[in-house]
């Protein structure tokens, strides 16, 4: 914290601020505010989130689940404000890792980087594999193939191809990553507002009052997923349905991961974070509203069982194919943005000596000025996660004191860890900011919260803690929450990742390298 206090951010040019923090400009600073926003928005990706989780939200909370979106976005805005203040103070690659390092200490920051980095790279595998069903559908329709999206080899080949393509584009320059993300923003805009308009023109089947109803999902006899909430919506169904939005509204922090490649980062990154979250919230609300109002007169049960295509199938075939292409592009853009963010975390840790083979991982391409080896790490680890596609038990598997559910591909279960890992890293970062404030830290970046700093930090931290508990809380496989966290599986995987980190950190003590780096920076700063 003393280092952060010593290095005032106010009014420093980008190069000076970077030098004051002990780094030299190695990456190419080419991203504009819109590029930075686009990467963050593409990671958040309303289309990917809604297309993946809409039926779960509808099945657990009924149409009224749409209003939990406002709660999540509003509370996450508090987190975005805290992160924006930190991004303005420490405009460095690695974002959350850097914030924890400067606010609390090297060891604390390293653990945040370890958890956050693994969660990002797990997200790459889960997002890219989520595109398989849509790619297979399009190929079968256009090329007359017979791809089975549930086949292990099909999942591996398509997901692997997406990872390779993302890696190639990320490697040839941040500008290309920005352009891919920009295209993703255009596609997401068409795919959210466009779907709403298309469904409206075709004719809605429900009135506005429908979105305030629960359709009795809180009662076991009428829940389309056969869940039992004991007749309680607020204290039962809503606590599970909110997860369909909790799993979507993050990723805005990736604007900070690419700070060293963004022009006027101290000013623009905080804006990009807020804008990505707010625009993502608006686009998501519009898309969900359109889907709800277009629900068939027969009710929500056919939609929950048949998916979003049950609604979109009413549109002309050419329009369905058009939106299918939009979805595939959105998945690709999202995966590319997440991989880029994860690579910057690996680069930042390696640059400080916080990873094995750090000297190799931190290397920057002289031609493209990108962390090419860190991007390669961002491809290798998702490929290793992709091997989990081979784990798909036909019947429940007893592990220690709980059962792993049948017919749940371990690769798809990984997305639950990706979300819980992100929320844990978020909470630790916000808690670190609170610790720094209690120690007397006064933000001096271009963007600060002023007197609102403490209440906003406390509010954001409480929300993250509550949602983290809601995500990982072990539940019977017959409960609604288990649809998202698979009982004990999410908590166990998170425990394994954290445990391996503790073991490695205890043996290798990478925080010593981080502390030496920080000490050299502080000495250099005072000597200047």
Summary of the model, kept short:
With 528 residues, this protein is an all-alpha fold.
Compressed to H and E, one letter per element, the order equals HHHHHHHHHHHHHHHHHHHEEHHHHH
Radius of gyration: 23 Å
Number of domains: 1
The CATH superfamily is: Amino acid/polyamine transporter I
Output the structural class: mainly alpha
- Biggest beta sheet attributes: 2 strands, antiparallel
User: Helical segment tally?
Assistant: 24
Q: Which CATH class?
A: Mainly Alpha
Low-pLDDT runs of 5+ residues are: 1-8, 522-528
Helix content: 55-70%
Which shape, going by the Cα principal axes?
globular
Beta content: under 5%
Number of strands: 2
Average residue pLDDT: 92
Terminus-to-terminus distance? 20 Å
CATH domain topology: Amino acid/polyamine transporter I
Q: Do you know the CATH architecture?
A: Up-down Bundle
- In order across it, which strands form the biggest sheet? 1-2
For this entry, give a set of tags.
disordered N terminus, 528 residues, Amino acid/polyamine transporter I, mainly alpha, globular, disordered C terminus, 67% helix
């Amino acid at each position: 914290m003393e280092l952060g206090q010593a290095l005032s951010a106010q009014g420093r040019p980008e190069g000076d601020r970077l030098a004051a923090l002990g780094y030299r400009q190695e990456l190419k600073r080419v991203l504009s505010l819109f590029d930075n926003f686009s990467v963050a928005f593409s990671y958040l990706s309303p289309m990917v989130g809604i297309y993946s989780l809409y039926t779960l939200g509808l099945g657990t909370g009924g149409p009224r689940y749409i209003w939990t979106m406002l709660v999540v976005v509003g509370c996450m805005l508090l987190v975005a404000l805290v992160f924006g203040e930190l991004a303005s103070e420490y405009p460095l690659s690695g974002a959350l890792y850097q914030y924890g390092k400067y606010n609390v200490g090297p060891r604390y920051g390293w653990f945040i980087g370890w958890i956050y980095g693994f969660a990002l790279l797990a997200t790459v595998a889960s997002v890219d594999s989520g595109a398989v069903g849509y790619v297979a559908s399009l190929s079968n329709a256009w090329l007359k193939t017979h791809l089975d999206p549930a086949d292990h080899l099909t999942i591996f080949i398509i997901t692997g191809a997406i990872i390779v393509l993302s890696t190639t584009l990320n490697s040839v320059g941040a500008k290309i990553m920005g352009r891919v993300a920009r295209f993703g923003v255009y596609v997401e805009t068409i795919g959210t507002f466009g779907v709403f308009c298309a469904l409206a023109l075709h004719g809605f089947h429900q009135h506005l009052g429908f979105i305030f109803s629960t359709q009795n999902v809180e009662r076991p006899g009428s829940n389309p997923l056969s869940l039992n909430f004991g007749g309680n919506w607020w204290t039962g169904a809503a606590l599970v349905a909110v997860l369909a939005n909790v799993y979507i509204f993050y990723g805005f922090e990736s604007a900070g991961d690419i700070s060293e490649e963004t022009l006027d980062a101290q000013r623009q990154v905080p804006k990009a974070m807020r804008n990505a979250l707010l625009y993502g919230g608006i686009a998501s609300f519009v898309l969900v509203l359109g889907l709800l109002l277009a629900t068939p007169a027969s009710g929500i049960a056919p939609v929950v069982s048949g998916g979003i295509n049950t609604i979109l199938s009413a549109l002309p075939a050419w329009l369905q194919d058009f939106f299918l292409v939009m979805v595939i592009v959105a998945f690709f853009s999202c995966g590319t943005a997440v991989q880029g963010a994860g690579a910057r975390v690996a680069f930042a840790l390696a640059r400080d000596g916080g990873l094995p083979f750090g000297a190799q991982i931190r290397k920057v391409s002289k031609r493209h000025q990108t962390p090419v080896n860190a991007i390669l790490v961002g491809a290798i680890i998702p490929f290793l996660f992709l091997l989990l596609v081979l784990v798909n038990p036909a019947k429940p598997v007893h592990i220690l004191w709980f059962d792993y559910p049948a017919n749940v591909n371990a690769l798809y279960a990984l997305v639950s860890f990706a979300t819980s890992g992100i929320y844990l890293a978020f909470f630790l970062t916000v808690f670190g900011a609170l610790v720094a404030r209690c120690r007397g830290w006064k933000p001096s970046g271009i963007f600060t919260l002023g007197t609102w700093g403490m209440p906003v930090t406390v509010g954001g931290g409480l929300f993250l803690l509550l949602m983290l508990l809601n995500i990982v809380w072990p539940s019977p496989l017959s409960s609604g929450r288990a649809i998202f966290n698979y009982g004990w599986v999410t908590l166990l995987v998170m425990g394994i990742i954290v445990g391996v980190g503790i073991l490695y950190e205890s043996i290798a003590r990478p925080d010593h390298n981080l502390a030496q780096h920080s000490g050299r920076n502080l000495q250099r700063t005072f000597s200047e």
